[in-house]
Each structure stands twice: as structure tokens, then as C-alpha cells.
């Protein structure tokens, strides 16, 4: 009985230490690369994109809209991040006009359309598309739920009155779920 007591005490002390060691190991070793940019599963979206080469415009949008606060309240979520290449459709003047502080509410609304509730990886997207004749809807964190369509082996997301975005890379992790990259910014005619 005495041995059992000491064994249990030892395990109770050892378990938290092992968990801390594991978390420290994951935090230091677990990462993914998007080009030359490093994405960490222990960081939120803003922490991951700030200072990167491919997300300068998106970082500006996050800072203008204070969107990370809203995202933190969502719990698990999947984010479709447009890289800077997605903003290439805008000339310099149009992009400058888009990123004015006066547009922060519309930008935040547009950004939140890129976020769906829950952790949805590429396999879940594919499965939903196959089960629903090539079209699927997921609840977004904004006013409009994007429609997902399978077209020519690609997955595209669309909202009314906006260019469609094609998913270009999938299954990156952030603190609250998955990140997928898209080639367009889902902003309707509001700006």
C-alpha cells in the first residue's frame, strides 16, 4: 500500500513536468513554412503573419481593423488567407484607397468572410464537396457565408458580387485551427 502511494505521488509530480517538456518541445520544433515565412501552430493568425514577406497587406488590414480580437473570441476556426499576390489586382492607388482607416469596418467585414467556424482541413472540404455535388457551405464569422465549389480539381470560394478565390495551399496550423491560402480577397462591391 505504501509503495502504491509513493508511486502515485511520483506520477502526479512527473506528469506535469513531462507535459511542460512536451509543450516546450512542440513550441520549439513544430512549424511550417509558407515560402520563406514560418508559421507556428502555437501562435494566433496575426502573430504568424506579422513581419512576413507574403502577408504585408493582410498585416495592415489586421492592424487597421483590430480583427485578431474578434478572431480570438471565435474559438476553433479555419482561415483562408490571401497572400500579397491576391492584392495584385489593385493598382497602387486603389490599394492605398482600400487601406484607408475610414474603410476599417468594411475591411473587417471582408476579412471575417475568410474565416469559417470550426477546424476544417483539406480532406473535410473535399469530403463535403463530394457529398454535396461539388458545392458546400460553411458558416462564416461574418455576414455572408462563402460558397465552396470544386472546379477542375481546385476548390474555389465565392461570395456574391466579389471575385472568386482559389485555394492555393492547405493545412497550415494556427493556435485556433487551420490556415489555407487563397489567391483573392473576398471583398464585395461595398468599397
Distance between the termini: 73 Å
CATH superfamily placement of the largest domain: FAS1 domain
Structural class computed from helices and strand pairing: alpha+beta
What is the H/E order? HEEHHHEHHEHEEEEE
CATH architecture group name of the largest domain: Roll
If you had to describe this structure to a student in words, what would you say it looks like?
- The model is unreliable at 6-12 and 14-29 (pLDDT under 50).
- This protein is α+β, with helices and mostly antiparallel strands.
- The chain has two domains: 1-29; 31-182, Roll (FAS1 domain).
- 39% of the residues lie in helices and 23% in strands.
- The protein has a seven-stranded mixed sheet, covered by helices on one side. The protein has a two-stranded antiparallel sheet with strand order 1-2.
- The longest helix has 28 residues, at 2-29.
Tell me the layout of helices and strands.
Layout (H helix, E strand, L loop, with lengths): L1 H28 L2 E3 L2 E3 L5 H5 L6 H10 L1 H6 L4 E6 L9 H7 L5 H9 L2 E3 L4 H10 L3 E3 L9 E5 L2 E5 L6 E10 L2 E6 L9
Parallel strand pairs: 3-9
Antiparallel strand pairs: 1-2, 3-4, 5-6, 6-7, 7-8, 8-9
Question: What labels would you give this structure?
Answer:
FAS1 domain, 191 residues, seven-stranded mixed beta sheet, two-stranded antiparallel sheet, globular, alpha+beta, single chain
